[in-house]
Specification:
single chain, 388 residues, alpha/beta, VC0802-like, Rossmann fold, 2 domains, 9-stranded mixed sheet, 6-stranded mixed sheet, 14 helices, 41% helix, 20% strand, binds adenosine-5'-triphosphate, binds magnesium ion
């Protein structure tokens, strides 16, 4: 029935400067999302992306597009030649297919091609009449139709389609540059990663572990989370970095109440070095203001002082229940709640300082060989590409 898909993109068209770059990025992402069907062709007509299926199955392809950021809506399309008889015949087939022959419909026609002899109201009238003739159990209802049939007469062809499926919105991944996201195995950071991708960021993910004190199973959990996120982000690089040595040094030399803040600062320093290698311009975390002692304003300020990069915290002002809702919707929740230790929880002080001052943090850190610890941690890293 449907041999094409029409894709609309909203927000990015308003961002004047480099619209055609952005369209190209979206086009590339669509092509990647549909890569398992090599016969599929993706192109652009004006402000739409058009997918020619060439025999690829429409429903699975639509499902893939449901996970591409930057799409405002899309429609499965039956294409007809520029001839009223053929357009009406196609419309009859679409209504028959969608309404199983009975129910109320309405036709909305548009004539982008001003050479076409009939104007939009005339196209709508003629299509409606021929559907009613061919399918006597259908009727027209312009107020509460079961089906809105759109007919779009363009330069070379006419498109006939039965619905607009809402897309994810946001920006296409790659449009906003690259960032490093700090991914724990918890509920929050996978949601932060998803939101950062939705805003058009390409990501390198970093997970810090304290193997052998954290288990291989904990690491596999993080890889599973990345696998789920890759269903939106395409293949994602995951850098696995050991902070075992750093944690041992902090434990040996620094006050217990500052441990978490000090560890976070080291995490930020390592991520900042990695960002230079990956040409990334920001750090992303899953912090949410006030959630735990390390997420007070003073603690966040003390941590941010360890990097020169912009720190983006997509969840900073969100409630836990809303975060959990998103985690469930994107499919990370079930994996996040598996009980495996993270390096932070192993090492958590009994009474963390909720109001650490920058000068006391600096003083505590004087007893660490920061530069060498950061360099050694970076050397220990392992990078895995995860996802299809
Ligand atoms: P999450 O659910 O994301 O683990 P959380 O509420 O448990 O968050 P914290 O453990 O304080 O909060 O972590 C705050 C943020 O620090 C995380 O969202 C993540 O971005 C980063 N982070 C924490 N632990 C790690 C880790 N082991 N590796 C990489 N990043 C981490
Ligand atoms: Mg955590």
């Amino acid at each position: 029935m449907y041999n094409h898909i029409l894709i609309r993109y909203g927000e990015l068209t308003t961002k004047g400067a480099n619209r055609s770059d952005m369209e190209q990025i979206l086009e590339r992402n669509v092509r990647q999302a549909l890569a398992e069907w090599p016969q599929v062709r993706v192109g652009r007509i004006h402000t739409r992306i058009v997918v020619e299926l060439n025999g690829a199955p429409v429903e699975p392809a639509l499902q893939k597009l449901q996970r591409v950021f930057g799409i405002s809506s899309f429609s499965p399309v039956a294409v007809a030649p520029l001839d009223m008889k053929a357009i009406c015949e196609t419309a009859i087939q679409v209504v028959k297919h969608e309404l199983a022959g009975k129910g109320a419909f309405k036709v909305e026609a548009r004539r982008g091609n001003k050479q076409f002899p009939l104007d939009s109201p005339a196209i709508a009238r003629e299509v409606g009449a021929s559907v009613l003739r061919a399918l006597p159990d259908t009727r027209v209802d312009v107020h509460q139709p079961d089906l809105v049939l759109e007919v779009d007469v363009r330069k070379a062809q006419a498109y006939v389609y039965p619905r607009r499926v809402p897309g994810l919105g946001g920006f296409p991944i790659g449009m906003s540059g690259r960032a490093i996201a700090l991914l724990s195995g918890g509920i929050d950071s996978p949601v932060a990663v998803w939101k950062a991708m939705k805003r058009g960021l390409s990501l390198d993910l970093v997970h810090y572990h304290s193997f052998p004190f954290t288990s291989e199973r904990a690491q596999r959990k993080v890889e599973d989370l990345v696998g789920i996120l890759a269903k939106w982000g395409g293949r994602l690089p995951l850098h696995l970095i050991s902070v075992t040595e750093i944690q041992a040094e902090i434990r040996k030399h620094c006050p217990e109440s500052l441990r978490t803040v000090l560890l976070r600062r080291m995490m930020f320093r390592i991520a900042t070095k990695l960002a230079a290698e990956c040409r990334a311009g920001a750090l992303i975390t899953g912090d949410s203001l006030g959630q735990v002692a390390s997420q007070t304003l003073s603690a966040l300020n003390a941590v941010d002082a360890a990097t020169t990069l912009t720190v983006i915290r997509p969840l900073a002002t969100e409630d836990k229940l809303d975060i959990i809702d998103v985690a469930k919707r994107i499919g990370t929740y079930e994996t996040s709640v598996q009980p495996f230790d993270d390096c932070c929880s192993l090492f958590a002080p009994r009474r963390p300082k909720t109001n650490p001052k920058l000068d006391e943090v600096d003083r505590a850190e004087e007893r660490l060989d920061v530069e060498n610890l950061v360099a050694a941690a970076l050397d220990s890293r392992e990078c895995k590409m995860i996802g299809a």
